[in-house]
Amino acid sequence: MSMKRIMAMASAAIILSVALTGCSGDKKDASSSIVVGIPQDLEDSLDPHEAVAAGTKEILFNIYEGLLKPDETGNLNPAVAEDYSVSEDGLTYSFTIRDGITFQNGKKVTPEDVKYSIEKSAGMMGSPSLIPAFSNISEVVIRDDRTVDIVLASPDIDFPAYIASIPASIIPAESANDASKLCGTGPYKFVSRSPQENIILKKYDGYWGTPANIENITLKIIPNADSIVMNLNGGAVDMFARLTATQTQQLSDKFNVLEGEMNLVQAVYLNHAVKPFDNVDVCRALSYAVDVDNILELTSDGKGYPVGSSMFPAFKKYYVDLSDTYPTDREKAKELLASAGYPDGFSFSITVPSNYQPHVEAAQVVSQQLKEIGVNAEIKLVEWNTWLSDVYAGRNYEATLIGVDASSLTATAMLDRFVSDADNNFTNYSNAEYDELFKSLYQAPTEESRIEIYKELQKNLADNAANIYIQDMTEFVALSDKYEGYVYYPMYVQDFAKLKIKEQ
Questions:
Q1: Quick one: which of 36, 149, 177 has its CA closest to 84?
Q2: Could you tell me if 279 and 338 are in contact, meaning their C-beta atoms sit under 8 angstroms apart?
Q3: Buried b (16+ CB within 10 A) or exposed e, 397-406
Q4: DSSP-assigned beta bridge partners for residue 501
Q5: Distance in angstroms (rounded) separating the CA atoms of residues 49 and 128
């Protein structure tokens, strides 16, 4: 993905925020409202087919839906489609559109909308797809006034999960030429956006499913991590997700602190296209130098789930625990640096988005640990939109410490970004064996053989120290004692529709 595209998406977000303000002009009902703090604005896009940032997609989850939709248990349930079937050869998925379902502008969802959305999401209209597996779609066929067939070039058992992801959301076909027509079928509709201040959502009364409990959602943007606790304790914010352990300890007794898994892989992601990270021994040396248990102890009171590769434990049968691949051994690290030509160490920068305090704190500990082997890691704090344009799109960085999540409930979504020519391979990892292994996933004759390939891919990343792996983080959520109903998902989303005001 090019920097040009990211910047275009940022511009699109601003245009759309103006165009979509007219979706609802209702005044906020303070008796049925909640203010949710978020660390960044929706900088990339309000179009689900263009959104790349996890922080954007977790908000869009409340506005848009695909033909299928994941629930909090990881099951894929009917959404825009009320049912579907698969042909015996596994190539044709026939979806029946839910009877009477409407977009948030009140218009009925049609087969033409579904065909347009899938073709757009799949990159069949010229722009790159955010779902690499959608390149396997050969055609989308309207069979009748409620049925759409999606035909694949080859079978893919993960296809239903991709269909349920945010980048596969169903949007109006008429929005192709008019941004003001862009809207979804979810429980909340977009009302307005004040850049760097807030985003306003309102309950969609025509929602096909279980209606949301709270009428108005205000997403208050707090990019300065140091002011999060102040906003919570001062009453300006009712909820904030992904706090640090230190922040939770500073909260007043008016908040309940919830605890769950964040379902991402926090790591120091290395840019293998720049020196010295083009040398695998250097990458291995840094991995030996880092003490993950110490990072967890200093940043989250020892809570967290150490990982050794690019998958987290929630993937269960696909996950393999490789967290002991590089036990802390700083003498070994120094030996590897010397053999790689860096006996006196070297210096590099770790670019970290300043609005994510858990990543900032982890970077500070990593930097101190690397000094033990003579490596100077300078922390470079940047704003989120700068991280998107410079690091993710431009790949103009040396190392970055962030958390990477799955764009869909598939193990493939965590691993496809390390294929050499993948658009989302922002680390520039290039390994011929990895590429061949990944390609073989689609020829795997059984689920068991596919599971083994997933594990081999993870082992490849660990053995070659593709990144300095740290953890799947514990997610701390602060929720005012006025509210209840927060639900954790096995993916990076927030479901506002399940929140409700406590009965007094």
A1: 149
A2: no
A3: bbbbbbbbbb
A4: 483
A5: 10
Say if residues 159 and 135 touch (Cβ distance below 8 Å): no
Q: Are 401 and 363 in contact (CB under 8 A)?
A: yes
Each residue's pLDDT, cut to its tens digit, for the chain (504 residues) gives 433 334 334 434 433 443 444 344 344 444 599 999 999 888 678 899 998 888 899 999 999 999 999 998 888 999 999 999 999 999 999 999 999 999 999 999 999 999 999 999 999 988 888 888 899 999 999 999 999 999 999 988 889 999 999 999 999 999 998 888 999 999 999 999 999 999 999 999 999 999 999 999 999 999 988 899 999 999 999 999 999 889 999 999 999 999 998 889 999 999 999 999 999 999 999 999 999 999 999 998 899 999 999 999 988 889 999 999 999 999 999 999 999 999 999 999 999 999 899 999 999 999 999 999 999 999 999 998 899 999 999 999 999 999 998 877 888 889 999 999 998 999 999 999 999 999 998 888 888 999 999 999 999 999 999 999 999 999 999 999 999 999 998 888 899 999 999 985
Q: Which amino acid is at 256?
A: N
384 with 43: CB under 8 angstroms?
yes
Non-local (6+) Cβ contacts of 186 within 8 A are 61, 62, 63, 64, 65, 104, 204, 207
- Asked if 323 and 308 touch (Cβ cutoff 8 Å), the reply is yes
Q: Quickly count: other Cβ atoms within 10 Å of residue 261's Cβ.
A: 17
**Can you tell me the distance from the alpha carbon of 72 to that of 235, in angstroms, rounded to the nearest whole number?**
29
Q: CA–CA separation, 41 vs 383, rounded Å?
A: 11
CA distance 41 to 382: 14
Q: In whole angstroms, how far apart are CA 382 and each of 2, 139, 307, 397?
A: 19, 42, 26, 12
- Tokens representing residue 184 in the block: 């979804």
Q: Would you state the structure tokens that stand for residue 451, as one six-digit string?
A: 């599971």
DSSP string for 133-154: GGGGEEEEEE-SSSEEEEEESS
Please tell me whether residue 239 adopts helix, strand or coil conformation. strand
For 423, the 3-state DSSP assignment is coil
Amino acid (one-letter) located at 155: P
* Closest residue by Cα to residue 201 from 384, 26, 9: 26
> Which stretch of DSSP H or E encloses residue 298?
helix 292-300
Distance CA 327, CA 298 (A): 18
Q: What domains are defined for the chain?
A: 1-63+186-261+480-504 (3.40.190.10), 64-177 (3.90.76.10), 265-472 (3.10.105.10)
The residues near 446 (Cβ < 8 Å, ≥ 6 apart) are: none
Q: What is the DSSP letter of 389?
A: I
